[in-house]
Structure formats: C-alpha cells, structure tokens
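We modelled the chain as a single entity of 348 amino acids. Its sequence is:
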Amino acid sequence: MTQKTPFDYKNTLQSSGFNIYSPIEVGDANFWIPTPHLETLLNQALTGLDLGGLALRTRSKVVKTAICEALGYPVPKSFKKTQPRFLGQQLDVYTQKSSNLQIWNEELSPTRRYAIIQISDQEIVLKIKVVNGQELALLDTTGTITTKYQAGLVTGADSHELISAQDTPPLLPYVQFGTTFAASISPIDEPECGALLPIQEIFDRLSMLVGFSFADPGMDQERNRGAALHRLICECLGYSLYEDKGQFPDIRHQLLEVKLQTSPTIDLGLALPSSEECLDIRQLGEHHPRHCDARYAMFYAKTDGKQVTLTHLFLTTGADFFTRFRRFEGKVANGKIQIPLPQDFFSR
C-alpha cells in the first residue's frame, strides 16, 4: 500500500467540502491526518509567521486562520468556541513563550491532539510540536494532572511472563510472523498491515534482554534510562534505526508501549490499557487500533547507581493488562493543569 504524504491529506480535505467542525472518526484512513503529518503541515505553513504587535484575540485568529489554510480547510467567518477548537481533527492550539503549558477548566483527552507553538521573544513562530493528551500526561512531573491512572506490579517466580497468548482478535489479520524491516523503516512510523509482529514473536525477541545491564544515567534521568532501553528493544525487534519522539505508544510501528520499572508503581497516563477507545493512529485495513489492542512490554529492573540490570519481562495486550496487574483507583481532575515542558521538547 502506497504511503500517503501530508499533502495527500490536505488535498483530500480541500476537495471534501468539510469544515473544521465536520466530525471525523479517529484514525479514518482518508480524512484523519496522522499526527506526524499534521505536525509537518503546520511546521511548513506556520514557521516564521510574525505575530508581533497583535492583540491576544487577533493573534489567536491569525494562528487559527493559518492552521485552516495549512490543513486544507476553508477559513470560517468566525471561529466557534468549541472544545477542541478544530473539532474534526480533535486539535487544540497553544502558543508558548515559556516552558510552562497551562490548560484551564478541562481534562486532557487521550486522543485529542495539542499543537504547541513555540514563539520567540520577537513573537515569531519557531516550531510546532503536536502531541496527544496521553503523551502530555506523561510529561507531568508536578502532579497537577490528577486523573492519571496507575497500577501495581508484583514480580513472581518467573523472570519472563507472556500474559497474552495472542493478540486481540481484531488485530490478528494484520500480524505476520517473521517480518523483517527495510533499513528506511522507523520504529515511530505508523503501523502497517502485515508488518506487525505477533505478540508471541515480540516476546521471543525481547526475552534475550532479561539479565542485560546498561549504564545508569542517574536517578533523575528517567527519560535517558528509558531511551537506553528503547534503543535495545528496537535492535532486538530488527530495526536499523532508533527514534523516539515521546509518543504513545513508544514503538508506534508495532503498537508497542515500553515501560522500565524500578518501582512497583506503573504510571499509565490518561487512558486505561483496557480502554476500547481508538488510538491516535491511522486505521489498519478496516480496523482502528484501540488502547486495548496495544501491546505493553514492561521490564522490571534493579540499579546500584552505576548499572541498570533488567531482571523481569512482562508482555501483555491492553485488553489483558488488568488480569495480571492491580489497578489503582483514579482521582478527580482539578481546574488548572500546568505541565512544565522539557528543555528538548521542541527538538525531539
């Protein structure tokens, strides 16, 4: 199947007769712009846009107008106060001079996309990063997002546990044993029909990592620890490239979420693994991948401060997640969410 370019989606929307409020199903093969393509279109159209001297309301309108034109939508005479602003693409927009992202009076949604627009001190658009709510929630180190889900991990006698004997039934037509990947394929690419490894084969390939050690970058370097593990996993799965953009799931091409646990508390973000809501991912054939279709690879590890040693592997579908791990109860959201964006947020 020929991969669509960002401009294919833009051209399709231009000829569709849709406006920004026309409903589109998450993952629709024709009209839902995959997040990486959405980010490309916005960066090509908005980078360098001068917002200097504009009142806040005027600036907001200029940005939203530019986004309409970038995505192939007609510009409405006036913009409705919908949540999110670009309803059809489940897209909200925030312009940021500071690294403190503030979201008022609404919860983060796992499938909503957030276009974070970096602007300079001179009010020039520098770069746009598009992430979904699940990915934003994982950046929250302040505890202001109180609806994040957690679960408990208790290791057993076995160092290797394949919790799900096979993938979820809707995913089975799209998996293929023995798949190899071209050198140009990235682990963060959209998943493809016939290019998904079965969960059993993922388990077999990753099992060799149990007992492996790597340098510990430090207790305050969780992201770097995770990156080291991601790199090892990509090699075991057969990728020539390593890329990580902080997305969910981590290895998008395999619908695989990766977690490195040095404590028994598993942070799950905004969505329960067992959720049947669609992922922010292009559909596979006739099926829109759901959270419960995702595969979760969890490595338990110990560290002496110098070396991280992987001691246990757990692999499960989202659907079976809570057959093995105990869910902690979530809490009620507050009115204001503040998320400190990492220094490398726009460079990932």
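As a brief sanity check on the tokenised model: Residues 149-328 form one domain. The helical segments are 6-14, 35-46, 56-71, 133-137, 199-206, 222-237, 321-324.
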